[in-house]
Write a structure and sequence with these properties.
Elements (H helix, E strand, L loop, with lengths): L1 H6 L4 H5 L2 H10 L2 E5 L5 E5 L2 H8 L4 E2 L9 H4 L12 H9 L5 H5 L2 H15 L4 E3 H6 L1 H11 L6 H12 L9 H26 L5 H6 L10 H32 L1 H9 L4 H11 L9 E3 L3 E3 L2 E3 L4 E4 L1 H4 L34 H18 L4 E2 L21 E3 L7
Parallel strand pairs: 2-8
Antiparallel strand pairs: 1-2, 3-5, 4-10, 5-8, 6-7, 9-10
Length: about 400
């Protein structure tokens, strides 16, 4: 199992339950080196204390040491998650106001309305795919409304999002690589056309705001605008989809915890934080690079090497969390790293939290007899090292309390 996670982290065996392997690495090789087929070294940081330090370490940078990306992708790499200060500071300043907890809280009634409309649509059938019919459309509808993107185009975002979050390097001649190049080129073309429409017909939405944005006299370049909006669409969708899907899978696998939450809806706050810790939407961070030789836990990471912080492992570190492998929706003092930490802390964390709380609350309140249509251990995980989420999740139910 350890070898499958380390050697092939996107294999079905690794994705279905990586936690025992991560526990082994924390105990024996907490700073673990993997040599990629390209010959590049990738270091996995697995313990909580090391992960917390690495997330805030300015010597671990986002800028790739060699710009070897294809043209279809290069223009999408100038976003918050791919650059370092001072560019990161400037970009975050232009965007952060739209995602403040106070402003996001105003979206709560609309998010609940969307959740209820989606449940209304599936109620008569007594079955649905929890991902396709609920977890995926909810955040897409929210983020597209916030950004001012036509809702009719939202179905295309899932294809583009899958290409965007793929975590393997581009390889000429690979059929999958060709598909990703095409998808990302389409995504770029779509966004550039959208920006032109916003310039010609400004509206009261976030994309118009970014097109016209100024912060201390500064503006977004064409590539910065493109990559920033792309990341907001993808991250605003991916995180919440996986939070809802993973969270419901965990609750159905632990019926005692689900019953606690149904009996006491006030637990949804701590329950959401626990689901982010126990089965979070991001298995690892996006890649960082050592800007100089680094010493972590007695191990030297050479300059230029790739570093991945394994959030799924850090959040199960038994030295930081009591009974770390136990799901406990009443857990308090839950300082998980599900949204990262430091300057790259997830900008949309407050939105994802509210969406997750509302989506799960409305689902279990209206359909308390929800049950999986196939055994939970037969659900298929998406083949991504960075994101942890289900490809589909068929469920059955008989009741809809409509409250």
């Amino acid at each position: 199992m350890v070898q499958s996670v380390v050697g092939d982290p996107v294999s079905p065996a690794a994705k279905s339950n990586p936690y025992p392997a991560y526990a082994h690495l924390r105990a024996t090789q907490p700073i673990h080196c993997v040599t990629l087929p390209s010959g590049q070294r990738r270091w996995l940081i697995t313990r909580y204390a090391d992960a917390e330090r690495a997330l805030c370490d300015p010597r671990l940078v986002k800028t790739r040491p060699v710009d070897d990306l294809p043209d279809e992708v290069r223009s999408l790499t100038k976003s918050l998650i791919s650059v370092d200060p001072p560019d990161h500071t400037r970009l975050r300043g232009l965007v952060r106001k739209a995602f403040s907890p106070r402003l996001v809280e105003r979206l709560r009634p609309r998010i609940q309305q969307i959740a209820d409309e989606l449940l209304d649509a599936v109620a008569p059938a007594g079955r649905m795919d929890l991902i396709d019919d609920y977890a995926s459309p909810l955040p897409i509808m929210v983020i597209t409304e916030l950004l001012g993107v036509p809702s009719a185009d939202s179905a295309r975002f899932r294809v583009w999002s899958n290409a965007f979050v793929a975590d393997e390097p581009f390889t000429n001649g690979d059929p999958l690589d060709a598909w990703r190049r095409t998808a990302l080129a389409e995504f770029s073309s779509y966004l550039r056309a959208l920006f032109e429409r916003k310039r010609a017909d400004p509206r009261d939405d976030l994309v118009t705001g970014l097109v016209m944005a100024r912060e201390d006299g500064d503006t977004l370049s064409a590539d910065e605008l493109l990559s920033t909006v792309a990341v907001l669409i993808v991250a605003g969708h991916e995180t919440t989809v996986n939070l809802i899907g993973n969270g419901m899978r965990a609750l159905l696998a632990h019926p005692d915890q689900l019953r606690l939450l149904i009996r006491d809806p006030r637990l949804i706050g701590p329950a959401t934080e626990e689901l982010l810790r126990y089965t979070g939407p991001s298995e690892t961070t996006t890649f960082r690079y050592a800007s100089t030789d680094l010493r972590y836990n007695g191990v030297t990471i050479p300059q230029g090497d790739q570093v991945v912080i394994v959030l799924a492992s850090a959040n199960r570190d038994e030295t930081r969390f009591a009974h770390a492998d136990r799901l406990d929706v009443t857990r308090t003092g839950n300082h998980h790293l599900g949204f990262g930490k430091g300057i790259h802390f997830c900008l949309g964390a407050s939105l994802a939290r509210i969406e997750g709380q509302i989506a799960i609350s409305r689902l279990i309140r209206r359909i308390p007899d929800l049950r999986p249509a196939i055994p939970l251990d037969q659900l298929q995980w998406r083949p991504s090292m960075i994101m942890r989420g289900l490809q589909s999740f068929p469920v059955l139910f008989t009741g809809d309390q409509r409250t």
